[in-house]
Design brief:
Length: about 180
């Protein structure tokens, strides 16, 4: 792997970590808070593409698994991967892959298509897998978990929009492979 790729992967991992420093907003009716860190996952896939985006997310998750408190709210360790938020966390690397692949394959400088790709994968895909995790781990009925996730849609839509705007700007500057 080239030095440039290693640097880009490390930088994106750092961005995901820094977004985790923004305090979570607890909701009370669902054991999952509002976070900014998932925007870093969307950025990883959009900016780095499938392979490098996946690697940056995996490195981040490995750092969390060994106990570093890098998840939003200062959480870390194996417990994160078996808690109420596990479904969302397991979706992260796959979301980066799918966003990277979708933007490369189907995006041809069409803003709305790019937004749709990032939104469907970065918001809907992650939230549905999060609902599956809530059902499996927190024993919440699936429909209740799915409906509870609706609260995330407005904020996550804004995050997806910001990701696409950043992606398009970097693509215009030839920093991102189009």
């Amino acid at each position: 792997m080239k030095t440039k790729n290693v640097a880009l992967i490390a930088m994106m991992t750092a961005i995901i970590i820094v977004l985790g420093f923004v305090p979570p907003i607890p909701l009370g009716f669902i054991p999952v808070p509002l976070v900014l860190q998932n925007m870093g996952i969307m950025l990883a896939g959009a900016i780095l593409g499938s392979k490098r985006g996946f690697l940056s997310v995996i490195i981040f998750l490995l750092l969390v698994a060994v106990g570093l408190p890098l998840m939003t709210g200062g959480r870390g360790g194996v417990a994160v991967f078996v808690g109420a938020t596990a479904g969302y966390i397991y979706a992260y690397p796959f979301a980066a892959v799918l966003i990277g692949y979708g933007l490369k394959k189907f995006s041809h400088s069409n803003f709305w298509l790019e937004l749709l790709i990032v939104w469907v994968v970065g918001v809907i895909f992650i939230d549905v897998l999060g609902a599956v995790g809530l059902t499996a781990i927190a024993h919440m009925p699936f429909m209740k978990a799915l409906i509870s996730n609706l609260v995330f849609i407005p904020g996550d839509t804004i995050k997806a929009l910001v990701v696409v705007l950043i992606y398009r700007r970097l693509k215009k500057m030839n920093i991102v492979e189009a």
